[in-house]
């Protein structure tokens, strides 16, 4: 557990020292792996990628998404109360289904992992049926590590009647890994 907090503290300090709120020169912020058809990077290097190792994530190939690539995609904005019952905020980013389409998912379930170790299994069909976004901004500012960043799954529950009664369980913030599996 101490190792995980050390890794997170290092990531936060590197982000803070960078001074770049949009991570324009940073590395990849979300890695999509598992049963995908498009890959643009090789296997995990456990020695140089300790966060994946700390959470038991392994892969032989992946599709990576830098902030700039996500920001270049068509942006959608969702105004919604998050956490549930709090004030309404504006989140923006590409549709998650558009992000996933780049990786060509071959499975039916997404296992989304956050920086704090939270993992959530989400049916791919839910993402495909609803205008869910992979938010990279809130109120126009980049989602930073230490807040909800680097990315967050945001559901349009205030405008999509089918999602009106959903709780916050699938609202994964601090997203850095999405595994596609059966």
TrEMBL record:
Alphabetized UniProt keyword annotations: Signal
In the UniProt record, the signal sequence range is 1-18
In this chain the Oxidoreductase molybdopterin-binding domain maps to 77-145
Keyword Ligase belongs to the record: no
Question: Pfam families recorded for this chain?
Answer: Oxidored_molyb
Q: Which SUPFAM superfamilies match?
A: Oxidoreductase molybdopterin-binding domain
Keyword Iron appears in the UniProt entry:
no
**What's the name of the protein?**
Molybdopterin-dependent oxidoreductase
From which organism does this entry originate?
A: Hyphobacterium lacteum
